[in-house]
Write a structure and sequence with these properties.
mainly alpha, about 525 residues, 2 domains, globular
Length: about 525
């Protein structure tokens, strides 16, 4: 599978998922706004998602894919299948025990996860109930992540990339159909999360079966490969999960801020997740199995080339996206969320958080693109040290900045820690000779930055030209945002083509797996 084509597959389906996700968030914002029920649900939803991204998508998946892809390359499909089944069994039974313990200890866990809620017993009790409903999603989606790693290693990216669409569809249906039958809309959404885990698991299992990898659930055995998997997974839980751990720290600190702060950060993060998910996650997902197989086969030059092209492709799309979120944050939040219980006050507070998070968007992307350089080589210790430093900086900056900027300070601290993480990863890879920036990237990056600057100027002018529309009703605001996006995209595309930052020839060459230069 050609790297850019794989990125396009994952990114395209992720874009569809994000569209459904925004539809979901628009409904949540309209019905729940940024009040106590919304805060309770977002904490309940984040809790299983934190563990999923740390232990399933983060640690287990990042450690599993290089081993599985290496066995696939060296010993064939049958040997790789045996390892996958052993890993599946260990993961299933370990998480089943963990879910059972967490269900019992949920009140205590919420005291750790959202200690500020303890001052409001009704809000705290609601959070516990919703978390208990949603937490089994961890078990289901972790199995989904493993099956997705199998498919990605086989070069089949579509089914796993489409799975998040099912989550958003289930949550949309739950809030539309189930909410009238439950005590609060938060209950309906929590049940929607649980149902989504079941649907996604069935979807991925059928996809594996079609690919000739219908995995069984044997008796768990700690084989040498499983020992290696577990040994690598422990440090990756910290290294690959730094962003999620930052969210945990942010949630704990935000629980002490005025009501609605957690919701502001959630809605801002949802906007940031669009480019990050479409570009950064797609790059990381496609790059890890490719690097693992190329390095196992001894194709070092090809691995360096694909690392450079992944960085180039990601910067080409992420830098203008981050700049646009900075320049037109308020129109974006207004159009997406300002309706029903979500007033102009909530929109302004969310936009401020979005601007702070946008500063860190390129760094979030770089972390996704650089960590496969470690994981594909079996190095999981170095990212742990880097993650620990970034986490410490995030906590210190959050505690300091929230005193003056409230929730915006927390968002800004997240961006700062992301840049520390990305910078350290790049420096270490470069010193070891694993990251060699080629002449093409050195030439293209300044041109991409120039095209981004021109786009910012065009957006600034366009925003003032449609100012009356942005102050109008919902339809007028949507039309104004569409014009802003179109003008910014056109300005960037024309400047990128004229300056040589990118062009149609490059895109055609990348999609064919050739270097147009």
């Amino acid at each position: 599978m050609i790297l850019i084509r794989a990125i396009a597959t994952v990114g395209g389906l992720t874009m569809v998922s994000r569209v459904f996700g925004f539809a979901r968030d628009v409904l949540i914002a309209k019905i729940l706004g940024a009040g106590p029920v919304a805060d309770a649900f977002f904490v309940a939803f984040k809790f299983p998602n934190l563990f999923r991204r740390l232990f399933a998508e983060g640690a287990f998946s990042a450690a599993f894919v290089p081993i599985f892809a290496g066995l696939l390359e060296a010993e064939g499909k049958s040997r790789a299948r045996v390892f996958a089944e052993q890993a599946l069994s260990v993961l299933f039974w370990a998480l089943l025990v963990m879910v059972a313990v967490m269900e019992i200890a949920m009140p205590l866990m919420m005291l750790v996860f959202a200690p500020g809620f303890a001052a409001d017993p009704e809000k705290f009790d609601l959070t516990v109930v919703l978390a208990r409903i949603a937490f089994p999603y961890l078990l289901l989606i972790s199995l989904v992540s493993l099956l997705g790693g199998v498919l990605n290693s086989l070069g089949r990216f579509a089914a796993a990339a489409a799975a998040p669409i099912l989550l958003n569809v289930c949550m949309i249906l739950s809030i539309l159909l189930l909410a009238p039958l439950t005590p609060t809309p938060g209950h309906a959404l929590a049940w929607g999360v649980f149902a989504a885990g079941v649907v996604q698991l069935v979807w991925l299992y059928l996809a594996c079966a079609r690919a000739g990898m219908a995995l069984r659930l044997p008796r768990p055995r700690i084989t040498p490969e499983v020992k290696l998997l577990l040994r690598r997974a422990v440090p990756v839980a910290i290294g690959a999960g730094v962003y999620q751990l930052n969210l945990l720290v942010d949630t704990v600190l935000a629980s002490f801020l005025p009501s609605g702060s957690i919701s502001y950060l959630f809605y801002a993060d949802r906007v940031v997740q669009l480019p990050l998910g479409v570009i950064g996650v797609a790059v990381g997902t496609a790059l890890l199995p490719l690097l693992s197989r190329q390095l196992r086969a001894g194709h070092t030059a090809a691995a360096h080339y694909n690392q450079n092209r992944a960085l180039e492709f990601a910067c080409l799309l992420t830098l203008p996206a981050a700049a646009a979120l900075l320049v037109i944050a308020e129109p974006i939040v207004s159009v997406l969320f300002q309706r029903g219980a979500f007033s102009v006050v909530e929109a302004q507070a969310t936009a401020a958080a979005l601007m702070a998070m946008a500063l860190g968007l390129p760094a979030f992307m770089l972390v996704k693109a650089l960590t496969p350089g470690f994981f594909a080589r079996g190095d999981t210790a170095t990212p742990v040290k880097i993650a620990a430093a970034a986490m410490a900086i995030n906590v210190v900056c959050s505690v300091i900045l929230m005193q003056f900027l409230l929730h915006v300070g927390i968002a800004l601290a997240m961006a700062i820690s992301a840049w520390v993480n990305a910078g350290a990863l790049a420096v270490v890879l470069r010193r070891r000779g694993f990251l060699v920036i080629d002449a093409r990237n050195k030439e293209r990056l300044p041109r991409i930055l120039f095209a981004t600057a021109v786009m910012c100027g065009a957006l600034w002018i366009a925003e003032r030209a449609v100012g009356d529309w942005l102050a109008g009703d919902e339809v007028m605001r949507a039309m104004a945002l569409a014009l802003l996006v179109a003008s910014g995209a056109l300005a960037f595309a024309v400047t990128a083509q004229a300056s040589g930052a990118a062009g149609l020839r490059d895109l055609r060459g990348l999609m064919r797996g050739k270097d147009p230069a």
